[in-house]
Amino acid sequence: MKYLSCVTIFFLLINYIYSQKQIASNLNTLEGMEFEVDWDHFEGNAFEVDWDHFEGSAFEVDWTNFETETINTASYNWSFLTDQRNKALYIDFEALGGKMNRLVVTSDKNKIVIEDNHLFDLPFNTIYEIDLDKLKRGSYFVELYTHNHKIIRKEITIL
Q1: Which of 96, 126, 149, 158 is deepest in the core (most CB within 10 A)?
Q2: Whole-prediction pTM value?
Q3: Burial class (CB in 10 A: 0-12, 13-18, 19+), 99
Q4: C-alpha span between 86 and 66 (Å, rounded)
Q5: How many CB atoms sit inside 10 A of residue 72's CB?
Q6: 83-127 pLDDT tens trace
Q7: What is the pLDDT of residues 123-139, one digit of tens each?
Q8: What are phi and psi of 72, to 5 degrees?
Q9: Of 125, 114, 119, which is closest to residue 156 (Cα–Cα)?
Q10: CB 93 within 8 Å of CB 126
Q11: Looking at the domain that runs over 79-158, which CATH code has it been given?
Q12: Which phi and psi (to 5°) does residue 107 adopt?
């Protein structure tokens, strides 16, 4: 038992010496780098960032790659919107008057291609999404049946 204890202590001592050499080696590799803290601007919470004094390219945004297209929001219909690639149609229930009961998408040949009879479970401010990627090219009609028995009909075209 004494032998086992001595061997264990010996290996722990070797492990400690090795780890100290690793720490010294890591400190030597960091020696050429500069780590400077501007203590004049460091106050209070350690996680606060003083954005007036923050410089660097990590958070810079290349605004030239953003779309600059403007829309006249007063005359624009926000009820039915497609994404930029025309792969999804978004329907804003709130812009259309609130609660809906049913949605039907029919082809130009009056064939039902999408039907959802459970819209009454959704909140009045739902943005409903239809995956247009599943539909073939052509014209379709989106019909929404409101809770007060009105029908909202919109024609869409898949190119």
Answers
A1: 96
A2: 0.52
A3: middle
A4: 18
A5: 6
A6: 878 889 999 998 888 889 999 999 988 899 999 999 988 998 999
A7: 989 999 999 988 999 99
A8: -75, 100
A9: 114
A10: yes
A11: 2.60.40.3080
A12: -80, 175
